[in-house]
């Protein structure tokens, strides 16, 4: 009897492993810190390899692997992709080259885990939209999210965020968990 109860509670409680990826300076660490309620810092503190955080949500938890965007850390990142159930692909809307490099990030993670997983596309630094001439438009990013959906077979939402104001930060993680739950329930049924 105790065993049965134990199994039931275990299937409900999840630990979601998610990775934050994208170009250096796109704002991955700032997003993670904001999500954890740690505020915002203007100073760039480059992530060395990877940072880890855990956040409780309801009766579950999200394990967040905040990976270094700099090219020199590729071998380190490769060690963290295994077992990831979801990915947050971050670019900086004020830096079009961080957008152009998204396919490399998609390829890096899918090559390593040899399958597709739920993803959310994030255009960060939305608070700076009016201060820059050449920003990545919402339309362009939404189109790319659609093409990612086609490639991956998952619905890939696009969200514009600001780690500075907190805009949409919670929604990024909520949307990703929702997609992961959907995937888990489909796997169980099928
Ligand atoms: N205005 C504004 N600045 C931001 C935002 N997010 C991050 N920044 C700034 O952008 C810089 C880089 O942010 P990080 O979060 O360290 O970037 P990262 O993607 O973790 O970079 P790596 O660890 O090198 O991969 C920092 O100076 C942040 O203060 C944002 O939403 N708005
Ligand atoms: Mg970082």
Walk me through the structure.
By secondary structure, the protein is an alpha/beta fold. The chain has a single domain, classed as 3-Layer(aba) Sandwich (Rossmann fold), CATH 3.40.50. Helices cover 41% and strands 21% of the residues. It is built from 7 helices and 6 strands. The chain has a 6-stranded mixed sheet, sandwiched between helices. A hairpin with a 2-residue loop joins β2 and β3 (60-67). The longest helix has 21 residues, at 169-189. Residues 6-10 have low confidence and may be disordered. Bound molecules: guanosine-5'-triphosphate and magnesium ion. Guanosine-5'-triphosphate binds at residues 24-30, 41-47, 68-70, 124-125, 127-128, 162-164. Magnesium ion binds next to α2.
What is the CA-based Rg, rounded?
17 Å
Find the CATH topology: Rossmann fold
Percent range for β-strand residues: 15-25%
Count of β-strands: 6
The main sheet orders its strands as: 2-3-1-4-5-6
Number of helices: 7
* CATH architectural group: 3-Layer(aba) Sandwich
- Biggest sheet record: 6 strands, mixed
Give the CATH H-level superfamily. P-loop containing nucleotide triphosphate hydrolases
Secondary-structure-based class equals alpha/beta
Spans of at least 5 consecutive residues with low confidence = 6-10
Task: Indicate the mean pLDDT.
Answer: 94
Q: Which H/E pattern describes the elements? A: HEHEEHEHHEHEH
In the CATH scheme, the class would be Alpha Beta
Associated small molecules: guanosine-5'-triphosphate, magnesium ion
Overall 3D form: globular
Share of residues in helices: 40-55%
Number of individual domains: 1
